[in-house]
Structure of Ankyrin repeat and MYND domain-containing protein 2:
Amino acid sequence: MALPKKGDLNEEEKALLEVIGKGNTEEASKLLGSKTVRVNCLDEHGMTPLMHAAYKGKVDICRLLLRHGADVNCNDHEHGYTALMFAGLSGNKEITWMMLEAGAEMDVVNSVGRTAAQMAAFVGQHDCVTVINNFFPREKLNYYTKPQGLDKEPKLPVKLAGPLHKIITTTNLHPVKIVLLVKENPLLAEVEAMQKCYKVLDLICEKCMKQREMNEVLAMKMHYISCIFKKCILFLKEREDKLDGLIKSLLKGRERDGFPVYQEKIIRESIRKFPYCEATLLQQLVRSIAPVEIGSDPTAFSVLTQAITGQVGFVEAEFCTTCGEKGAGKRCSICKMVIYCDQTCQKMHWFTHKKSCSMLKTTYEKQMVESAKEKNKEAAQTAASTLTSEEQLTSEPEIHKDMEIKSIGDQTEMIPNMKMTASSPVVGNFLEEEITSANIVNEKVQESEE
Ligand SMILES: [Zn+2]
Ligand SMILES: [Zn+2]
């Protein structure tokens, strides 16, 4: 079959592009089965079907095209865009990942001199930037599964390459998450395997720093994971509860405010131990972390995550309190101050969270009262300026005062600001609501203690 020329599409190929646009996987599959359809055909702009599917965020069709031999590195686009660039522009993490797995070159630049990661960053698709920056080709790891030079055996047993690859390409660097990833694979979760793995990580780290195009970010990531692995070894050797013991230690909050001190210290220590002290990234990290008192913001985890994933606008509030996974949406129903991925994460955290939950609840309520006061101050100002008669001004507060006294009762301890708010009618209303919900919550606390 002749090499595809730009815009030289037959009817079936035109139909293929059309069904890709509609996201009709079944139809696309039928067309790709036809002998006359070339999987790498080019439209008039030099776009392949894969580029179209990637740009439009059609995950299943991308997978289908790759299975049919689509060339992920085809570079005939009029402005030098690759399928990976289109994936990055689309903001679809899964497709971006798929292109990389299929062997997409990361360093190719388009006609304006931008790489796929830079293009994605340019349009604000930071999740895709993260995926690209954290990708580590499997072949690079497979190198260590073959004996090199005088070695009799490989540095990394073949069976460990898969699980290790999964860990080093993760974009969630939460120490608990890393330990969970280790734990889920019985081949990995033993001392000897962990030792081999951390040595390979140290070698990759060294390579990243010594190669011509130095990659400090990847070096730091490898070093950090290596440090967590060393902690795993320590717990596997010395603790009866093994990796569960490590997870518990990492999650355990201090008495005062539930802050996980051990976790913070381990991350700080890992960063400090980075063996290349001249690295700019190391100096940046140390500068951001050193002045922060343990327990204050930013945490070492958030600083490290920002540096390694390139994530901007990192808001800790959307990350699972237990494992750091992004997009956690389940809130503790009692305190409403911590969020989790799911019940598994909540259960893992409960042994320590139960000690600070009610205290956090008070903090939450205080915050709500404060913000309500702020809002009401504004509302009162607006209201005052729109009120026409004095009557309205004087009659309102009376009613609310009555209501408050009835409903508040002896709960003064729980909401310390109550006396102040008693003079403000609008806040009075709000408080009543708060107290009712607080009562419900109180009941819940008792339930869960039983
Ligand atoms: Zn709670
Ligand atoms: Zn989680």
